[in-house]
Amino acid sequence: MTLAVLSASHTPLMQDGVAEDRVRAAVAQGFAALAKRAQEFEPDLLIQFAPDHFNGFFYELMPSFCVGVNATSLGDWDTSTGTLPVASAEALELSEALIEDGIDVAVSYRMEVDHGFVQIWERMFGTFDRFPTVPIFINCAAPPLPTFKRARLLGEAVGRWAAASGKRILISASGGLSHDPPTPSIVTAPKEVRERLISGRHPSPEAQRARVERVLEAGARAVNGTPEILPVNPEWDEAFIERLQSGNMRDFDALTIKEVREKAGRGGPEVLAWVAAFAALSVNGDYKADLIYYEAIQGWIAGMAMMFAESKATRV
Length: 316
Hints:
dioxygenase, 3-carboxyethylcatechol 2,3-dioxygenase activity, 11 strands, Xdiol_dOase_suB, globular, alpha/beta, 3-carboxyethylcatechol 2,3-dioxygenase, ferrous iron binding, single chain
């Protein structure tokens, strides 16, 4: 058994958002470095924690956690459509183990995932089907959200299953860090938007274009420090990264969703995925987490971070 963690931010604005050429080159270099680490690790299986952005999961039935037994990519934001290479037998085995371990996960035989799951792999390898995968959705966008303690406990339960599997397992997280996209609230949204949050699957091309234009405009305004969204918060991001590197995962239990949204934006709770991934690795003992890349990219509405971590026993 050998475990490692690969984590990276995603952003819908990576392709067409405002960024200097220097920034784009540095991001590409970061993803290349992550790809190299993943290839060197040679995983038998990938377990990925990631959120959704009201593309595959909706308020009509919103689980806190869901394991995909089969999954397809919707192809939003310049990503590809297609079937994910889900390791269905392992997904079912893991789901049963999680429930036995006190984590009440949902399962889906028809999971639909968006750029939150696939973008980082396409940036690393040009494809999202590089490794056999078990996708695990975490609700990071549709309050009420799971707590950071529950995300930690989910991760630890995944880690225990992975540690007992005898496989080389790469555990991944995609999301965060601080970012405040113009995501509507079901509490205050007008009727039409509210309905989309409840059951907005497969929107019309016109509705999809309007959504894209709204986010692109928000990114362009963010470069100029618009008050309509919170700016990326590099100080918060740095503190979060340092807490991950410390290995003291229980420290995250006191973190509240309210605090994260206030300081790291509406998209900040996507770091629940990072907490779950690093908690999974922590069951294997002390680890060393390398920060591959970080930059606060206002035009992408993203605290853009990339990390790779392995247990210290593995690195000896």
